[in-house]
Automatic annotation (TrEMBL):
Keywords in alphabetical order: Membrane, Transmembrane, Transmembrane helix
Organism: Vibrio furnissii
Membrane topology reported for the UniProt record: Multi-pass membrane protein
Name of the featured protein: Permease
Chief place of localization: membrane
Family label: Belongs to the autoinducer-2 exporter (AI-2E) (TC 2.A.86) family.
Membrane-crossing residue ranges in chain numbering: 12-29, 35-51, 63-88, 163-181, 216-237, 243-264, 271-294, 314-347
Pfam family, one: AI-2E_transport
Length: 361
């Protein structure tokens, strides 16, 4: 029976001071936590490549880490630049087409559609609101289309600001990643030394953090890429700019419950209203059968190893993560759930005798 750890009053003072100092340090790095966490997760994904570079450069750890960061930059930044350029081109062309369509009577054609006429008639008859006038709506849409040019300047400025912020966060992440890759052995050793757990419990906890981090990234981002690619193909077949709307559907896939339906449902309705019924049916069926099934099958498949979490737990970890932390919650949510489950398993092992006696009492 091991000796019980005796904690004196001076020890408590030290513990409280340490917790206060740790909290203060957290406040200092809080604005950069997301970049640090992403660097940690990417270091896990990059480690197989980094190990090979380290094996070829055993006495040059700095150079191996620098090469790993450069490889990551080329893997992420170069494709993003090409995709972003194509998105801007297709988005600009699509915006111009919408402007031409609105200013040349396209909105009035929609309001003359029998379905729209009947729908407005039912709405005006049964809903307790002021009467909906198609002319007023068309006038408002026309004003929005006319002011599109000035709005585009504001949107472009915001995109430029977001891009600048992304570059700064990416450079910070690369800086942290360099040290995580170079000093990974020292970091793991320090964590093992500080944790008051047995070696087997440390192995279980660290292994689960690594597994869940990888599966959260792969489950969320690969699902978004797959849905964006499939959705973009369907939109392209239906006559929309494929790359632009495919990218929008990829981003929309991160939104729980609604997801890609935020894009393809309005597109399908639009095709019906302009009389393109065949392509409207195709887009609706393709989006439900193919794009929707990707989210229902691929995400749980990629994340099924997350600490034994079932589909319901994965769903709530993603939903709660986004609600609490934003987009980065797609990683934080499953990670918090998984660590909690591992700690419960450790608790069950440590108090197994007591819990069994409780069950039998």
């Amino acid at each position: 029976m091991p000796d019980k750890l005796k904690i004196s009053s001076s020890h408590w003072v030290l513990i409280v001071a340490l917790l206060a100092a740790a909290f203060t340090c957290y406040l200092l790095v809080k604005p950069y936590v997301n970049s640090i966490v992403m660097a940690f997760i990417i270091s896990l994904l990059m480690f197989p490549i980094h190990e090979k570079l380290e094996a070829k450069l055993p006495s040059h750890k700095n150079l191996a880490s620098l090469l790993s960061c450069i490889i990551l930059t080329f893997i992420i930044v170069i494709p993003l630049l090409f995709v972003f350029g194509a998105i801007v081109q297709q988005g600009s062309k699509f915006s111009q087409n919408v402007y031409q369509w609105v200013t040349h009577g396209g909105i009035q054609t929609v309001f003359n559609h029998p379905w729209v006429v009947k729908g407005l008639s039912l709405a005006n008859h049964y809903l307790p609101f002021d009467e909906i006038q198609p002319q007023q709506i068309a006038q408002k849409v026309g004003q929005l289309a006319t002011s599109f040019g000035s709005n585009l300047v504001g949107i472009s400025a915001k995109i430029l600001g977001d891009a600048t912020n992304f570059i700064m966060n990416f450079l910070l992440m690369l800086f942290v990643l360099f040290f995580l890759l170079r000093d990974h052995d020292k970091i793991i050793t320090a964590i093992r030394h500080i944790l008051p757990l047995s070696r087997s419990q440390e192995d279980k906890l660290l292994s689960e953090i690594e597994q869940v981090s990888k599966s959260a990234v792969m489950g969320s981002f690969l699902t978004a890429i797959a849905q964006g690619a499939a959705g973009g193909f369907g939109m392209w077949m239906a006559g929309f700019p494929g790359l632009f709307w495919g990218t929008m559907m990829g981003f929309a896939s991160f939104i729980p419950l609604v997801g890609t339906a935020l894009i393809w449902i309005p597109a399908t309705i639009y095709l019906f209203l302009i009389g393109d019924t065949t392509w409207a049916i195709f887009l609706g069926v393709w989006s439900v059968a193919v794009v929707g099934s990707i989210d229902n099958l691929l995400r749980p498949l990629l994340m099924q190893g997350s600490a034994g979490m079932n589909t319901l737990m994965i769903f709530f970890s993603l939903l709660g993560g986004i609600q609490l932390f934003g987009l980065i919650g797609l990683i934080y949510g499953p990670l918090i759930f998984a660590i909690t489950m591992v700690l419960f398993n450790i608790y069950e092992e440590e108090f197994k005798g007591f819990l069994n006696r409780q069950d039998n009492s």
